[in-house]
Design brief:
Order of helices and strands: HHHHHHHHHHH
Strand content: under 5%
Number of strands: 0
Number of helices: 11
Distance between the termini: 49 Å
Helix content: over 70%
Radius of gyration: 20 Å
Structural class: mainly alpha
Length: 283
């Protein structure tokens, strides 16, 4: 079963909540299959399984988006009008994966959850260690600027990787998005586990989960928009290069849109890095 056989790109744009639900199911099934596989690196396996399940749909979505060019505008921009619905679909896909991985991590016993998501737990620990170091160093205004630059450059490397994967592998960027969604899922799930482990009730666990979401929402929303916009730009470019002969004059419109989307993704990334740097240095 693959996602594109369950929902078409047209229906996905009209009902993105269906993409969320299906992505949730794929994430949960990916975790289950990784456990049954008996592989040592289950954390890598579940990311790969979820990505493989989603790639055909995302490929069809990019082809569908690249094929139509209307004259309508959104927020004064024809580029946004053409591609904004697809970004909403990708948001539904990503958040569905996050929710599925979070629910799976919480549903598993604590020890088994850490064993299944072993790579994610290790990566999350490395990120938190880096985060703690930045907190202690961020004192002067110069260090605040350096912190912003460090966050932006790190995230920009991820953005470039997503863009490159999308151009050369079309929907290949889904692998990176699936990996990031699993990291966020473990982060949110661990917050709920900690609240419950400290003698808290189910309400306390839900409150911790909500607090974690609110904590990453200000900067995370812009970073997510940046990554999804970059994935869309690369996917459209890949499809356009393959179908260049059929596109004729429309090919240059596609190139213009790709350049504009890439620039917009960079702006989103800068905003997210600025917000995150301010939240780190906030007393």
């Amino acid at each position: 079963m693959v996602l594109e056989s369950v929902i078409s790109p047209q229906e996905a744009e009209a009902r993105p909540w269906k993409v969320f639900l299906l992505a949730f199911v794929f994430a949960a099934v990916a975790v289950w299959l990784s456990i049954l596989s008996g592989l040592h690196d289950k954390g890598v396996a579940l990311v790969a399984i979820a990505a493989i399940a989603c790639i055909p749909f995302v490929y069809e979505l990019f082809n569908f988006d690249e094929s139509g060019y209307e004259e309508a505008t959104f927020l004064g921009s024809r580029t946004l009008a053409r591609h904004f619905p697809v970004v909403i679909v990708l948001i539904g896909l990503f958040t569905g994966l996050v929710a599925g991985f979070t629910a799976s991590y919480i549903a598993l016993p604590s020890g088994q959850g850490n064993a299944v998501f072993d790579v994610q737990v290790w990566e999350l620990g490395a990120i938190q260690s880096t985060f703690s170091g930045r907190v202690t160093q961020a004192q002067s205004e110069e260090r605040q600027v350096a912190l912003f630059e460090g966050l932006f450059l790190h995230n920009f490397q991820v953005l470039l990787a997503i863009l490159a994967f999308s151009i050369f592998l079309s929907a290949g960027s889904v692998a990176i998005l699936s990996w990031n969604s699993s990291i966020i899922g473990v982060f949110l799930g661990s917050l709920a586990f900690k609240a419950a482990g400290m003698g808290g009730s189910s309400y306390d666990a839900l409150a911790a989960l909500g607090s974690g979401i609110l904590g990453i929402l200000p900067h995370g929303s812009f970073e997510l928009l940046a990554y999804l916009t970059a994935a869309l730009a690369g996917g459209i470019m890949s499809s356009a290069l393959i179908r260049r002969a059929k596109l004729a004059d429309s090919f240059f419109i596609v190139v213009y849109d790709v350049a504009k989307l890439a620039a917009l993704a960079t702006v989103f990334l800068a905003i997210g890095a600025f917000i995150e740097s301010q939240s780190i240095i906030a007393p």
